[in-house]
Design goal:
4 helices; about 0% strand; elongated
């Protein structure tokens, strides 16, 4: 039991050390003097990451659209097969009896 407790304490200490190392790196990199500035900086960085992920998702959607347009122009059959495959992955489909009971 004591070994487990000591292991947990060491893990917590290591986490604190890692957080302190990260914190000191940020302080050095951005020349931070006050704690409020650090909080503000972390919020700005989170917003930048969020903006980049949204931009990446828009890029992927547009890339998929270009691919589908090109596929439709060159091979309509393959295009429609791809559409069927993406929409045919329906889980928990209802039985015929359940549908008839509803109507």
């Amino acid at each position: 039991m004591r070994k487990e407790l000591s292991a947990l304490v060491e893990i917590k200490r290591d986490n604190r050390k890692a957080q302190n190392i990260k914190r000191t790196r940020l302080v050095k990199k951005y020349n931070i003097e006050k704690e409020e500035i650090l909080d503000q900086l972390t919020e700005e960085l989170k917003q930048k990451v969020s903006a980049k992920t949204q931009r990446l998702s828009r890029y992927r959607k547009r890339q998929n659209q270009y691919y589908q347009n090109k596929l439709f122009k060159t091979d309509c059959k393959k295009f429609y097969n791809c559409l069927r495959q993406t929409h045919s992955n329906v889980k928990n489909g209802s039985d015929k009896e359940e549908v008839e009971d509803v109507h």
